[in-house]
Fold this protein.
Amino acid sequence: MSVQKVILHKLKMQLKFPFMTSFGTLQNKEFFIIEVVAADGISGFGESVAFPSPWYTEETTATNEHVMKDFLLPLIQNNTINHPNDITDIFKPIKRNNMAKAAVEGAIWDLYAKQHDQTLAEALGGTKRKIDVGVSLGIQPTVEKLLEDIGDHVDRGYKRIKLKIKPGWDLEVLREVRNHFPDTPIMADANSAYTLDDVNHLKKFDELDLMMIEQPLAHDDIIEHAKLQQAIQTPICLDESIQSYDDARHAIDLGSCKIINVKIGRVGGLTEAKRIHDLCFEKNMPIWCGGMLEAGVGRAHNIALTTLTNFTMPGDTAGSSRYWEKDIISPEVVVEDGTITVPGKPGIGYEIDREALEEFSVGRWEYRV
């Protein structure tokens, strides 16, 4: 793969609505679009997903910028890339910083697929032509507003509703939701808001027939989740705890969960995400693709990943219009009756809207390779 230059586009986009979780609220998102340009003029695109504050993992938009500029791009400049899988070894000297790595690697994957006249889904080994999707709803100011929001998305055909919870906004709210939507697939996402001291409280969630409770305990824990899973019937889904293939392997061996959420940025890129997929397929562990409030490029990568066989549960890849007044791709991602049609064009399958890229730009840096 002959990469001639790399362009970092720093963007700032405003979400339609504030998104509130147990660890904070976000409305303005700064992130990077990574563009790798080959000698033949073809461009591949990746997207960084870190938040401005280190509330999800230790990474932030600022640390992504530092690591990409000062460490990852020099490694790209000084190494030969024959296949996107090579990036894992090339970046190995840099510890963690998975979201920075995934952003650059994603652009390489897109370029590779385009140069081989394949969709990104095909390049990864995916076969699905359509994927089922759910939606993630943040904590609302009132239960009434939440019920209204759920009803709107159920009417639009979303296959699953994920609700953010925290102590004081959990059991009674979920009971009210289940009362109004008795047959709707519902899951709760705690974002590490509880401890094992809350086990008796969390046992009460079993009455709600939830699909799962996501990451109830500490962000880096696997052992105590195993104890909790033994104590409750509701399936535990691990998110933040799974940073790598080895984390997934250990969680499966310990019985720490019954479901795993795979996020490309969190695990360090598509190559590692695919390895985790293959492991979970072998171990009969259901998985789904989580979201990080991505713009169109990151959303397109999620769609491609979800075409792999073992992504059997609806993911968080809602349509562009759910989050943005205007996205940076054309056409935008559209959900119809709870599904997204996988694009058939090479690479991510969507064109970059250069005018939108410029409109939301707050910085641009170009590097020769």
